Amino acid sequence: MATIFIDNAPYTVKDGQNLLHACLSLGFNIPYFCWHPALHSVGACRQCAVKQFRDEQDTRGKIVMSCMTPAAEGTRISIDDPDVKRFRRSVIEWLMTNHPHDCPVCDEGGECHLQDMTVMTGHDYRRFRFRKRTYRNQHLGPLVNHEMNRCIQCYRCVRFYRDYAGGRDLDVFASHNHVFFGRHADGVLDNEFSGNLVEVCPTGVFTDKTFKEHSTRKWDLQTAPTVCVHCGLGCNTIAGERYGSLRRILNRYNHEVNGYFICDRGRFGYGFVNSGERIRTPMVRRSKAGKMEPISKEDVLKHLEGMLYFGARVIGIGSPRASLESNFSLMTLVGREHFFAGIPEQEQGLIGRIVDMLSEGPAPAASLKDAEEADAVLVLGEDIANSAPRLSLSLRQAALNKPMEIARKMRIPEWSDAAVRTALQGQRGPLFLATTAVTKLEEIASGVVHAAPDDIARMGFGVAREIEGGARGAALPAGEMSSFARAAADALKNAERPLVVAGTGCGSEAVIRAAAQAARALCSAGKEARLLYIVPECNTLGLGLMTRKHLGDAFRAAGAGPADIVIILENDLFRRADETQVKEFFRGFRQVIVVDQVRTGTTRVADVLLPACTFAESQGTYVSSEGRAQRSFKVYLPEGDIRESWRWMADMAEIAGRPEGKAWRNIDHVVKALAEAMPVFEGIGHAAPQAGFRVNGLRIPRQSHRASGRTAVSADMDVHEPKPPVDSDSAFSFSMEGYEGMPPPALIQRYWSPGWNSVQALNKFQEEVAGPLRGGDPGVRLLAQGSLESPAYSGEIPPPFAAREDSWLLVPLYHIFGSDELSTFSPVIAGLAPGPYIGIGEADMKRLGISEGDAVVVTLPGLSRVLPVKKIAGLPQGIAGMPAGLMPAGWIGLPAWAEMVKKNGG
Amino acid sequence: MISIIRTIWKVFLHQFRKRVTIQYPEERASLAPRWRGRIILSRDPDGGERCVACYLCAAACPVDCISLQATEDENGRRYPEFFRINFSRCIFCGFCEEACPTYAIQLTPDFEMAEYNRRNLVYEKEDLLISGPGKYPEYNFYRIAGLAISGKDKGEAENESAPVDVKGLMP
Q: Which value does ipTM take for this structure?
């Protein structure tokens, strides 16, 4: 701790910070542009000037940049000195000389850091009488809009895109006052974090192109805290609505999880909520051959009354993309023994193993923050940039932890970004990747090997054995792989906080065990080792904690005896199992009841179809890959008869005569029942304040105090304004009325503070800039770690992979745009997703005598399909790949052996 | 007694004073151009819609009686997809006009808007949009803004230099 004097008043600040960081943490307002809490200081914009004094006697002082000056013991500065105020005003006046007269037509307007800072410094009228510099814009793809005239040359975009996110195709061009930020030519931005430019850019140069389609000002958006539903990491987001449609997603800061950034799938995948494929009304098929007819909510419940009599044999299929509450309500409705996770047997086996390893092993599950702090990383079988994109950003930062010692030795403060990068000379810490094919993270990896899933597992076991000193585990794989395993083991052994990452990605149970074995070995070596398993969907782990029963069990249960009804919750079984098998399964029931958000193959065969709320319209708890239960809140009420899945289930329970039907009046009742029914979920009630929570007797408003149009929005239909609906499930109100101050961290619905209209207002919500949120970061970790004493992992070490002469091992290949189900309903994401293909390595292409684009007949037992060939770099011989989530029914359950023949004349 | 007579005398004298009351509607008062009456949306000198749907009028409105949705046409011009003023709520304070950065929304010296039915006081864009520039005949926002629209490329706005040649080396 150090004491500094700001305008002659003493303040205590943490050691090793810069003055800007310290002053903002203390709640002072200093304008800044180039500094960003995650990108640190470069001192480029000259905006954050303060006056520094030598000692008490010094009255003249000197102007310094607060972001480049350490907050050392006894530092005396003045923020309010007239000289320095004039200096800051002049700086912004220069920055504004070329700024166009665009604010009314700029999407950043009203949440613009430049606007805020201009007002803060007091610059008002443009005195500069010369011409304004202009630029031509570039087309940067369907996600990000470019309007270069608005640039103030703070360099944040390239520092984020290149230095932080590892992108290459955005750079700075030209010189002096012609400096230009863009690509070398028009084209789609290549980096999976390009959407963060929207939040990083302090002006309107980079704006959200999907938001532009239905642009709305920040003050008009009705917002609520949500959790991203597009992968298993559980990034926190803020979703905004206006006029009944979801308008955009912003990052919501959670120090433990996503910090300042989210990936493009999470930011731009929201389009499915507004999609034409949404189910908006209940539908009923009166006869098996008949057509679906729309029906009202009352009538469909009456219709269900005829089926759900007492004693009806009902089974329920849950979903990894539905909330815990929805799954639990279905489980309660059908009874625990009739509830099955809607996940194929093989995948559910992997998830069960992950749950075992995380709860029994000595290494705790790593949060994204832990991953960012790791100083050596081993990745087994995961294409992280595509299967859990936000994690790859964390690992890119983790790769700088080890080399940071160089900077520390040279006594360069960590926040002095340019100096640190110069000192590091591009060095990276240990990051070892064992994957099936070339992945994006390879450019920063210190060791890479491409192998079959079984060989990856052997590698993991080999690393574990090396760490343990040959006590247990497989003989090391030979050749290239052995040197990889040795190097990885050495690096992990020499690290303080090593991290092992694996997951369901390559479909191998042995890989999951191997990762746990390696983490365990590190723990016994006395390291603070962490383990991170990547799971595919937003609630995969939650469902895995709820039940071990899988789709195969459901198929068998249906085949075993006559059943009447199957209720399928937010799940497309045709994505999970073979088409004929699923059709056979459905034929075994008199009635198929489907509750879902969007039209899928499964909703088409339903006899009763109930429209469900998406994440934006419902409240629910999701368990992330870290085992963190996080609450997502409804942003707005859906139109018509669209309802939360758990409400449909509660109604059905009431029809079926179960007591829960009447007892569950709001979601807290469901949460409470779940916590009581299953000890593992005991803590989920604490994930966020309950419905009865009030601050000074007031609810938290979803709308800002500047929300407009209240008396005109619906005036075309009725001049009498409707009463705002009441939210019985949460402490939020659907209006601008309520507590205006800072809500508890789990209920932060927008970042705003007087004078800070942009997302940078976040500084005011943190205990310390870039630190935890005031009141603690939201979410409850459900998995307690095991101990070293827990029984050692048993299980076979798989034999080495042997390529076959006439068939290939098909492995899944992941795509950030396409592999997730819901986001592909968003038009922009669908446009960026590839089509079905068969990925083949170079050696095999030569062997088969085919080239890229040729058609190949791929045959699995009982399935055959002609697919175009795509060259996948790094795929080992004997292995072929298929895009995960992009193939039609049946092509799941990989890895599997398939035959391939070149299509003749095709 | 005297006071009564005095009062009658005073009332009698008033007959010869100049009349203040106007015989509306036969006779019309002349209202100043800046009188705050019925709100209109004006057009650019070249006929385009002036409103760029920036939402500032809606934000400034103390009774929240303006609502709109922004969209963009094929020329790159932003405009309101719908623009609605609920005049049964409007208090004619003129804040919207003050907030408007493009002189699109203007209050006019017209107050004759009475209706028997409150519904009819809800004005849509068709009812609000006039065919001229209103009080500001010269102003054309897109000639000043840096945004390129068809017919006005980058660097062609007022006080702008030609677009930078990013690949050029000249100072």
A: 0.92
